[in-house]
Fold this protein.
Amino acid sequence: MRVALFITCINDALYPRTGRAVVTLLERLGVEVGFPAAQSCCGQPQFNTGYHSEAAPLARRYADAFHGYDHVVVPSGSCAAMVRDNYPRIDEEATREAVAGTYELTEFLVDVLGVTDVGAYYPHTVTYHPTCHGLRMLGLGDRPRRLLQAVKGLRLVELEGAEECCGFGGTFAVKNPDVSAAMGADKARHIEETDAETVCTVDNSCLMHIGGTLSRRGSATRPVHIAEILAGTEEAPL
Amino acid sequence: MSGTYLGMPSFPKAAAASTRDMRLRGNLRHATGTIRAKRAQAVSELGDWDGLRSAGAALKDRTLRHLDRYLVQLESAVTAAGGQVHWARDAEEANRIVTDLVRETGETDVVKVKSMATQEIGLNDALAKAGISAYETDLAELIVQLGDDLPSHILVPAIHRNRDQIRDIFRERMGDWGRAAPRGLSDDPSELAEAARLHLREKFLDAKVGISGANFMVAETGTLVVVESEGNGRMCLTLPETLISVVGIEKTVPTWQDLEVFLQTLPRSSTAERMNPYTSTWTGTTDEDGPSVFHLVLLDNGRTDALADTVGRQALRCIRCSACLNVCPVYERAGGHAYGSAYPGPIGAILTPQLRGVQSELDASLPYASSLCGACYEVCPVAIDIPEVLVHLRERVSEGGTVSVRGRKTTIEPAKGHAAERAVMRAARWAFDHPRALRTGQRLASRARRLTPRRLPLPGPGRAWSDSRDLPRPAPESFRDWWRRTRGEEAPAEGRLEGGDG
Ligand code: SF4
């Protein structure tokens, strides 16, 4: 099985720890991973803002960069959804193979590798925010929660209004700053009410918005990508 | 607020004000939160919800594909049943037809049952200009009218008002329009409802002309259908001598049997009821029963143009249940007025720019009034992929393209004010398409990371972000660099990307 990592632009520049955690985790599970250097952004900002002609070359670049691998694993729900939902709308023929092989990380673990207990250790209270793209476009269902529940030492606490959007929405956060901030504030308040030490998601872009809001409010809760939780073990806590 | 949506500011500007209105936010949070939970319960009772949903979507799609045929069938059925059919190309024409029809009766007062189509065309204003007073008889619509306000929700037009506010409006304004509110009226819901009932009863008994909309029009028999909760519609449809129904052409269904699906999905999606209290149907005229004169005004007003758009046309499936508004986190914070049309919320964000075009600043901003979270698509009983249409319309705004305007193919330019954004998107795409340049940029950013502030002092998109959130800092070493340092460079899998990266 040849598995390639797709480390999205936000992960690459702002949250490289997430990518490193994915490498640690997958290699611990016996997967051989590659990182094709020709990869770049999935084109989501361009596509979702309406610049479809700008997104097209990036979609084709993606298909080329990952050509020849059995699977592509992405630690980002929204980028996986971009590839699976929107690439066929951009260029179905050129991207068909890449689209079929692309998995969000938790999907890959549960559906392809068939594991829910990845041998992780994380002795903290955690609350989980199911991001919109993971929840509704990819239909991740309870996969992330099942993975979290199997983590040793981890206590998972419920988040009120969990399924409501955090207000990020890519360029939405910039184009509609007031509504976005109002949504973010409500999300942050619900997170604070859980008293969790950590809030986790499958998407660093949402975490950037949630984390930025929590930080501005002086909250103690830390935003952490699910890969980082799953990568830590008792011998090598992350 | 005056009775028109014309000249309203763009969505973000209007929303900036409404997000700060804590009373409005409270009213909306309470109202939408309650209905949301009830709807989920009502829907979960049906084992075949998904089947009904796809059946509804398929039915509407098929009807829309052959709409020309069904409309002709509808016209002849209505005519055969003693009604008269009028075709209105746009708002102006529809308003003129209705005004002339009312004038012919010699009346200056009409009663109305809530109708989105007449809101859309601004009929009340047009009638007022002709010296005709139109009285809204839906409770929420009455509150809006007395308050000199605009509707802000499809089903509950006065959702932005709470009981206190309604009591004040009734006390202060009812007397100007007819029977005044009883002395000492409190904010008790049953007292408020009774005050409205007494006020409206006079109107119903006096009215010689009624104006309505319709939820459905059955082509095979020429029957119109109104689904409602209060019974005011039934009064408007039966007591007056003349009935004028103004209905969008997309409300057509081929047969009575088709109603089976929608009469299950509509009430559950809108009011979370298994069945709505009143379903009224009327077919032409009947001797000595109900109105003796019946006019049907079939409204286009941009609908055939929407129909010409293969992605956007799904918006015409909408059965106006308002479920998408009630789940929308953006609607909940911004309120319905910010959408600047009779159709607020997610459906408004995709319907209005299709009906009116994307030329005005407001209409061009509507497709962006969403975080694309997809909650609206999930609840829509006719499975309209609202996020798909939003993104499609964003392309129309930012890149222009070919659209149908009054039935003619026309090429439109990108909307104004998008040049800077286009440049940014293009530059970003260029960088992403040249990973080597991207890496250089990332390294520079990493080196300067300590200089990156958490808040930005200057105006611009970054400022909008950092007004409420701390900015993330670039990492000291990107993943790409870490991989290369620890694992070495990996060649493109089969060398298909020549020269992409060094
Ligand atoms: S778009 Fe769908 S959910 Fe929204 S009002 Fe129309 S039918 Fe209801």
User: Anything to note?
Assistant: The mean pLDDT of chain B is 90. DSSP finds 23 helices and twelve strands in chain B. The CA atoms of residues 209 and 369 of chain B lie 39 Å apart. The two ends of chain B are 61 Å apart (CA to CA).
